[in-house]
User: Fold this.
Amino acid sequence: MTADIHMHTSFSTDSETPVEEMVEQAIACGMDTICITDHQDYGLAKPGYFQVDPAAYWEKMVQVRDAYRDRIRILTGIEIGMHMDYREKIHAFINAYPFDYILGSVHLVDGIDPYDRALYPGTDDVMYRHYFEQTLECVRQIDGFQALGHLDYVVRYGYDRDVYAYEKYADVIDEILKELIARGIALEVNTGGYKSGLGCPNPHPDVLRRYRELGGERITLGADAHNPAYIGYEFERAEKVIRDAGFREITIFVDKKPEILVIPSK
Ligand SMILES: [Zn+2]
Ligand SMILES: [Zn+2]
Assistant:
């Protein structure tokens, strides 16, 4: 695919790459469409962490979008950290500017960032289950996002990744998938899973197959690059996984409306 609609720049706490550098690399590696989705998260322990200055961010997005118009299509986006305690703030943020694409992701479990695994007091099994339950609650109660980011991302940070299998959490995951389908929200395939050594994207191919089985049609694709080297990372592998799960198309969002791209057959 020549569209990568999940990436970060120095507007995100965990990236040091200037916006223009990401854009230049995207052009260099043949992308014709990208969406910049910097982090806006609420509820993290350190104040100001993973929060953008919305006005400065929007201004920059519009500036680069226009400046590069003849070379690449830049879509404006945000990766909003979904958290039930901050529902009102989340809605206010995503409605403040006319972003093309709102990617809703859950980054905390019971208020704890699983990246700091040692801070979470429970077993991997409890952490995974709570993550899915909290994702379900957010998907039901939060509005305005077009895709759910990296479902099963929490597994990246477990002590024992083997604890995870779709079947073990199928009761909750199926409810998440049904809710997405009923609301017309896409499911993201995030190739950051490969980078984390999972050997597959997030979510696991079993989840993609189940989504298809339940009637799901909209898949988005993003590498979640935090530096230029990872733009479009492992897209060919992910495309095969997506095709094997029964999909022939990828969805991107322009002005929040779905646009369909056919997956090249290899
Ligand atoms: Zn994320
Ligand atoms: Zn991200």
Summary: The first strand starts at residue 3 and ends at 4. Residues 3-262 form a domain with the TIM Barrel fold (CATH 3.20.20.140). The mean pLDDT is 96. Residues 79, 105, 107, 149-150 surround zinc ion (ligand 1) (CB under 6 Å).
